Amino acid sequence: MVLQNLKVIRDQLKSNSWTVDAFLFTYKQQDFVVLVKLYPDTKSKQDPYAIVRLEFLKRPKMVESYSTYATLYKIHISDLKLFRAFFGIEYGENLGNILKQFTDHFATFIPDHISANNNPVLKEAVLTSLDRTDPNPGRYCIGIRRNGYKKDGSPAQRTPENNQKAALLIPELHGKIDDNSLSFRFSEDQILEKTMDEIYMQWLKR
Description:
With about 210 residues, the chain is α+β, with helices and mostly antiparallel strands.
C-alpha cells in the first residue's frame, strides 16, 4: 500500500473533526503544496476505493491547480494529457512506468501525521481551502452561536470546516468551547474582530 500515509492523515482528520491537511511536494524541480481532503460523504466518491481527494497547488503563486483522488495504491488520472501538462511530463511509450515512478516518488513526501499547522505556507493554503467551502468565510472571529436543531430534534453540530478554522486561528478559544452544538462566527472585516475574552464573556452573558 504505497499511499498508506494518506489513510493515516485521513483518519487523523476524522478524529479531529477536521476536513483538510497539506504537505509540501517537489517534482521535476517544481514545488507544490498538496491538499489532502476528506470526502464529505460516501455518495460523493467517484471510486469506492478512494480514500481522499487531492489538490496540487503550484508554488509560489498557488493559482494553478490539479485535482484528483487517491486510493491506497494509486493516484487516479482521468486525463493523461492534462496530467502531463501540469507536471511537465513529456509524452513517452513507457507512460505506465512514469506514472508508477511518479506515485512512488510522491509517496516519499507524504507525512505520517497531520502537519499543516506547523508551517505558515501550509496553514495559509488550508485556511484558503476552508474559506472556499465554509459558508461563514473570513479570518476574524466575532463571536460564537448555537447552531439550532436538526429535523429530528437533535442539536445541529459544528461543521468540520468551522471547527478546523477555529482550531487554527483561535486555538485558545477553540479549546474552551467544547460544545459542538456551538459554532464560531468569522468575518472578513478585521474591524469587527473581538478578543477571546470579549467573545467568551459575551457568550456567558447570553
